Amino acid sequence: MATTPTQAKPGHARHDTALIHGLSSADVQKLSEMSIEAKARAYCPYSLFRVGCSILLKDGSIVQGANVENAAYPVGTCAERVAIGTAVVQGAKKGDFRAIAVATDITPPASPCGMCRQFIREFCELDMPILMYDKNGKSVVMTLGQLLPMSFGPEKLLSTDQIALEPHQESRHEEN
Ligand SMILES: [Zn+2]
């Protein structure tokens, strides 16, 4: 069911590649519209690089974010981290995130920066799709695992039991 470019509204075309990740076309439509809408609210007077983000949660709700910059440049934060922080404060837990969409004004689409990939990794499964929209609303879809291979997550941290059994601790006891 192809639509010609003249029939499709900009930013609202169907994105069949996302459907393989278990999202309905309605989910994809909502993620697309809400990330592009969030982009319009970016505060980026220094870079002029607008980024909008939308997150689809398991309950069907959408949380938005946009980049918010600062006169002290490194203090500014990315759209993805604004959106995830908002979702967490609203009660979202690890496992509640179904998909993340990011929209920018460039083409080909921009992907989340390294810091955001790690931030996303804290709360999301490796097979979660990340939809990246270009200036014309065309998307590329990749999973978190593809964007952040061999990643480090909270489950990799040692438990307090494991830390107590660290070899150097034992040898110190033997010396005494
Ligand atoms: Zn980022």
TrEMBL record:
Superkingdom of this protein's organism = Eukaryota
In terms of InterPro entries, this protein maps to:
APOBEC/CMP_deaminase_Zn-bd, CMP_dCMP_dom, Cyt/Deoxycyt_deaminase, Cyt_deam_tetra, Cytidine_deaminase-like
Q: Does the keyword Protease apply?
A: no
Query: Domain named CMP/dCMP-type deaminase: which ranges?
Result: 26-155
Q: Which residues bind Zn(2+)?
A: 78, 113, 116
Give the active-site positions: 80 (proton donor)
What CDD domains does its record include? Answer: cytidine_deaminase
* GO cellular component annotations of the record: cytosol
What's the name of the protein? Answer: Cytidine deaminase
> Native species of this protein?
Dissoconium aciculare CBS 342.82
